[in-house]
Amino acid sequence: MGSETNSQKDVSSLSNWAAERQFLGRFYLSQGFRDEQQHTTNDCGPTSLAVVLNLLLFQANLNSRPLDKDSVITDARLGFWQRLPLWVPNVGGATPPWGMVTAFNRLAAEFKLDWRAERHSHARRAHVIEHLMTGKPVTALKIWANGGAHWINLVRYASDKDRLYYLDPNPYLEHLSPEKRLQSQSWAEFEADWSRKSWWSRLFGIQCEIIIYTKTI
């Protein structure tokens, strides 16, 4: 019983962890499918940014309309190198770390949101935990064993369990209840994907990538 209470204190400022899970789960967004065979789109980047922006806008009480991935894609006005065109085979629509930062900062300025995104490459565990323990989301890039990649938003950390809680734009989670949309895994499980290298990640110097968010005033 004591262990559970400590975990709740670590991952949430609320006394009711079930309520916190439901609250965070409401910010989930789906990156969607690109065809009837239910192949997922490569829009995990814009979708993850929409989630972070919605969360920060809500906390700032700016009463803006909720953003979705299409809003981010359209309003961020990213160029070729910042978001790969849809006609590029297999990876069309993918957003690299520098595109993520550009998109967030443009939209934050548009909404007069006093937050700024920064890319942190070759990050370490301490960088991730420090931001989560101060209540700031961290957007992280996983690299799959098959060479694919996927953006997710880390939102909480439980030190006693060494466990991360995150919002994944995986469209298969869309029909779950809000509290079940908040996913979790151990640090070791997360790090296995986060620190993985692929030929393309070596080529572009991408490794242990996170996007961190800090207040500007």
TrEMBL record:
Q: Which organism is it from?
A: Pelolinea submarina
Q: What residue stretches are annotated with the Peptidase C39-like domain?
A: 37-170
Gene3D superfamilies listed in its UniProt record: Cysteine proteinases (3.90.70.10)
> One Pfam family for this entry, by name?
Peptidase_C39_2
- In Swiss-Prot or TrEMBL terms, this protein is called Peptidase C39-like domain-containing protein
Recall the taxonomic lineage recorded for the source organism: Bacteria, Bacillati, Chloroflexota, Anaerolineae, Anaerolineales
